[in-house]
Amino acid sequence: MNNQLFDFEKEYKFGIDEIDGQHASLVNMIAEIQIMFRDNKKEEAAKYFFETMSRYLIEHFSYEESFMEKIGYPQLEEHRKVHANFRKNMEKSFELISKGDEPAFRNALSDTYLWILTHIGKTDRKYAVFYNTNQ
Ligand SMILES: [Fe+2]
Ligand SMILES: [Fe+2]
């Protein structure tokens, strides 16, 4: 997990401190959940996923949307939709997980992890480039 975070920090830093910090926290949180899951602390993992991580992710989305608004990012509406769609899908998987569907939980975890990394690396990167070239 530490190696993953190390790579993550090297490759996904935008030079925007607050946002870089939030992204690193998100990746750490998912790593934490994966460890709990592996250690068979499934209820704890589900609670952390539902409550702590998803709350943090939603706060992050809002923070990012305000930031994009502040810098006059032209693709804000598109980005906002991507966030909203992901949120909807995540809530759908919560229903399955709360019914004790373990494969659904495992899938939701790896999908979330992948989605977050891809989203940061591709979609978020675009506003960072905009910010870094226009400020
Ligand atoms: Fe982000
Ligand atoms: Fe984003």
Please explain how this structure is put together.
The chain has 135 residues and is mainly alpha-helical. The chain has a single domain, classed as Four Helix Bundle (Hemerythrin (Met), subunit A), CATH 1.20.120.50. Helix content is 87%, strand content 0%. It is built from five helices and no strands. It starts with a helix and ends with a helix. It binds fe (ii) ion (2 copies). The site of one fe (ii) ion has 6 residues, from helix 4 and helix 5.
The distinct bound ligands, ions and cofactors come out as:
fe (ii) ion
CATH superfamily: Hemerythrin-like
How many structural domains can be distinguished in the coordinates? 1
Evaluate the radius of gyration. Answer: 15 Å
Cα separation of the termini: 35 Å
CATH architecture: Up-down Bundle
Output the helix-strand order. HHHHH
CATH level-1 class: Mainly Alpha
The average pLDDT value, as a whole number, equals 91
| Helix/sheet category | mainly alpha
Task: Output the CATH topology.
Answer: Four Helix Bundle (Hemerythrin (Met), subunit A)
- How many beta-strand segments? 0
Count of individual helical segments: 5
- Biggest sheet statistics: none
**Low-confidence parts:** none
Summary tags:
5 helices; about 140 residues; mainly alpha; Four Helix Bundle (Hemerythrin (Met), subunit A); binds fe (ii) ion
In terms of topology, how is this protein built?
Layout: H1 2-12, H2 17-38, H3 42-70, H4 76-98, H5 102-134
Please outline what is shown here.
The chain is mostly helical and 135 residues long.
